[in-house]
Amino acid sequence: MFSKSFVNRICQAIWRITWVPSVQHPRFIVPAVGIGKVQAAGKKDYIDLPALNEDELDEQFVRGSGPGGQATNKTSNCVVLRHNPTGIVVKCHQTRSVETNRKRARQIMREKLEVIYKGEESDILKNKKESIQRKQDKRKKANENLVKKRLFKEALMADSKSVDDRG
Amino acid sequence: MWIRLRRSLNGFYNRVDPLIVRCIGHKRLYTFHSPGVAECIPAIPTDYRLTVQECVTLWTRHFQLRGVSEPRLSSQYIIAHLLGVKTLESLGQDRLAEFLTHKQMEQTWKLCTRRLTRMPVQYVIEEWDFRDLTLKMSPPVFIPRPETEELVGLMLADLQVKQGTGVSEEANLRCLEVGCGTGAISLSLLNSLPQLRAIALDKNKDAVELTVENAHSLGLQDRLEVHHMDVIRDADMIVRMCSPVSVLVSNPPYLFSEDMASLDPEVHKFEDHDALDGGVDGMQVIRHILTLAPQLLSNNGRVYLEVDPRHPPFIQLWAEGGERGLRYVHTHHDFTGRPRFCVLENDNATYIKTRTSI
Lengths: 167, 358
Fold this sequence. Notes:
Radius of gyration of chain A: 29 Å
CATH class of the largest domain in chain B: Alpha Beta
Protein name (chain A): Mitochondrial translation release factor in rescue
Helix content of chain B: 40-55%
CATH architecture of the domain at 54-120 in chain A: 2-Layer Sandwich
Distance between the termini of chain A: 110 Å
Number of strands of chain B: 11
Strand content of chain B: 15-25%
Mean pLDDT of chain A: 77
Largest sheet of chain A: 3 strands, antiparallel
Strand content of chain A: 5-15%
CATH topology of the domain at 54-120 in chain A: Double Stranded RNA Binding Domain
Radius of gyration of chain B: 25 Å
CATH class of the domain at 54-120 in chain A: Alpha Beta
CATH superfamily of the largest domain in chain B: Vaccinia Virus protein VP39
Distance between the termini of chain B: 71 Å
Largest interface: A-B, 44 and 64 residues
Order of helices and strands of chain A: HEEEEEHH
CATH architecture of the largest domain in chain B: 3-Layer(aba) Sandwich
Largest sheet of chain B: 7 strands, mixed
Subcellular location (chain A): Mitochondrion
Number of domains of chain B: 2
Number of strands of chain A: 5
CATH topology of the largest domain in chain B: Rossmann fold
Oligomer: heterodimer
Low-confidence stretches of chain B: 8-38, 353-358
Family (chain A): Belongs to the prokaryotic/mitochondrial release factor family.
GO cellular component, one term (chain A): mitochondrion
Strand order of the largest sheet of chain A: 3-4-5
InterPro entries (chain A): Mito_Transl_Release_Factor, Pep_chain_release_fac_I, Pep_chain_release_fac_I_sf
Order of helices and strands of chain B: HHEEHHHHHEEHEHEHEHEHHEHEE
Low-confidence stretches of chain A: 14-27, 30-37
Shape of chain B: elongated
Number of helices of chain B: 14
Shape of chain A: elongated
Helix content of chain A: 40-55%
């Protein structure tokens, strides 16, 4: 279509104008979902998590300085998400998909913001406390059962011994 | 005599190599299969076992020694895969301290040795993730890039907005993908849109077979047709067989021929060059797709392309040149801020029904 050198010259100019690496805030395209009540990761009850404003977020990726895309095959997909108003930083490299890591980073960010905004009243903290309490209760009960079983066995052996003695 | 000299030199290297001693603390870790430290492969320990963490560390150091890119990540992904998980992060600290069985160590050595040839991790473990799907990977079929995940996200957002307007013909939503590779784009769309039917084309027979295999693994084969076709050579047949479709999508080869030689060995040695090389200006295949698009698309149908960051202005210029049958909608940037995706819409009003030359 155009000569190679012309293409290159135009590209140098346009690239400088339209592409400024890691300063822009690319809009993260999320399908329209209801904001507000969201199921927090791993929890049974629905919790009110604060909505995220993409304009307040800074995202960083490791994708190199070249043209990216087809030219490179890098497996690093760590996402670093920064919430500017509060300064909270979330790092996520839980999965092998960049998009999934971005979604999870946002979910974790929402949970962290919930804790910050609600303080003592935070549902997330309450859930955590409840689950720790439940585990402690469970352990206590299990131990009590073991003690009961042991005493029962000892009583049984003592009984059978006294029967032997008498017989 | 020469052999005896080499053996004693090997012994010397074994005792004093600071990297090995620091790494694990065991002596005689290396045997030499050919001259030079750079050529060695660590020997599998036979009289002791390694923990998961020690194995990762050992191979990270070795990849670093041999100049393999992403040494730590390569080691982590390979060993995680052998342990049946996607990432090491998903294992707890206690599992990282567990010993590997001898069989697991053998498998680790086998796969890590492949990585030493600069084979991409995705080909070494023969799988990779794309959005919420796990796909089989097989050389030389092109490995999906993370940018392309955004292309699918972009399409889904547009299609969901369209559905919101209650257009009844979307009940028969049809999509055509040119250059499907592993099938990532089509399968991801099918997985997210239960009412979609897709046709995928590729000129490489391996890609066609791999897409079919992935479709079956995901249970999506009933809504996907895959054809071994070349968008340039088989243009007429494609129009006859496939039109009309509501959506046309492609991640076509878009690299500039002059850039092919400077690609990383992972890409250059192992991936299909036909899936990368877009000709002198990187737009050879793009041009053909845009020429065919008006004949393939239904009213207001859209074409979505992933391109080189230098391409969007030229594509926009071309579309606005008049009588192309396509209206330029938007350029979207990828997560690194580079102009990456072009969206055009079928515009019958300006289309002249002869093949327009570019």
